[in-house]
Amino acid sequence: MVSILLAVIYLAFISLGLPDSLLGSAWPIMHQELGAPLSSSGIIFMIISGGTIVSSLLSDRLTRRFGAGAVTAFSVAMTAAALFGFSLSRSFIMLCLVAVPYGLGAGGVDAALNNYVALHYKSRHMSWLHCMWGVGASVGPYIMSACLTVGRGWSSGYRTIGFIQVALTAVLFLTLPLWKSGEGSADEEKRDPLPLKKIVALPGVKEIMLAFFSYCALEQTVGLWASSYLVTVRGIDAETAAAYGSLFFLGITVGRAASGFVSFKLSDSQMVRLGQCVIITGVALILIPLGNAFALAGLVLVGLGCAPIYPSIIHSTPEHFGASRSQAIIGVQMASAYVGTSLMPPLFGLISGFAGVGLLPFYLLALLILMAVMHEKMLKAVKKA
């Protein structure tokens, strides 16, 4: 029965990734049909991020009241409804409205699933599950592309993913008894939900929030600006830069698959440090003028280095802060992640407007240093507590 539930969780992580890249892949056509400016996709992204922040902060209260399985099932159902809302939207305002339940649902799934896996499964499963998210995020654009190619339009792409989410919702509701057999077995159920003020006051929490903020800001900044850096600063043609930009995400996905095996030998903290060392190597190759081949290889290395950090930080949360607090702390970590991905890439855009895109490696280095320092300070803080 445990293996059946694990298979369901793997499917849930694939499903979680499926819609994440749909807006970016469909927006060049969507904005024309809806009469919206090309840049207005950022507004939808911010609304979605706002919803995920809210549901992440509420995850502790909701999970303790309803259970991780029920929260996951209802959250996936909410994202399915939102995807159908996207498919029916014929105005930019309507897209903004349905972005609210999508963000709330996505954040609920993310926080509940990550905590449940951190409590009940080995570190390797956390890495492999996040690898499955990468698979979903990679497949989503292909589904959208297929719908556009055969002339069915972007609405059909959203509707197709919506039907997949509906099927997963049914599976989740049918398997709720399996979730309940694991819930309440640890000491995570022995207290009332923690208010945000008390969560942040716990030793090491502010540090891990900043570390998670920095990591997610770094990952999203690379994904958004790496191709522009390669074209503008290195003089690489746009097609090659775009291809290697996609290899950054492939590096994360493949790296997480490999991290699951490496975690047999290394602890979560060692996995985080290993990832940071690989990232700094990649940034150095991008920065040092050794030729374009080194810069492209550096970009792939940054992706590989990013791979173990997110799942390892999440999986180590119960160990560092206790099972009774893990859902609350993972919730604020998720919120910190969404703030980082929402604010820091646009901030670099503003900076680059004045100082040039060539500052990208230094910007990434600053985020990496902040991440590493905060992670080590967190380890010291929880050791003393």
Total strands: the figure is: 0
Q: What shape does the CA trace take? A: globular
**Which series of helices and strands comes N to C?**
HHHHHHHHHHHHHHHHHH
End-to-end Cα distance, whole Å, is 37 Å
Overall mean pLDDT score? 87
SSE map:
Blueprint (H helix, E strand, L loop, with lengths): L1 H16 L4 H13 L6 H17 L1 H8 L1 H21 L3 H29 L2 H27 L3 H22 L1 H7 L13 H6 L3 H28 L5 H25 L5 H20 L4 H15 L2 H7 L1 H5 L1 H33 L4 H25 L1
Helix pairs in contact: 1-6, 1-7, 1-8, 3-6, 3-17, 4-5, 4-17, 5-6, 5-8, 5-9, 6-17, 7-8, 7-12, 7-15, 11-12, 11-14, 11-17, 11-18, 12-14, 13-14, 13-15, 13-18
Q: Features of this protein?
A:
385 residues; 18 helices; 84% helix; mainly alpha
Walk me through this protein's architecture.
By secondary structure, the protein is mostly helical. The protein contains 18 helices and no strands. Helix 5 (68-88) packs antiparallel against helix 6 (92-120) and helix 6 (92-120) packs across helix 17.
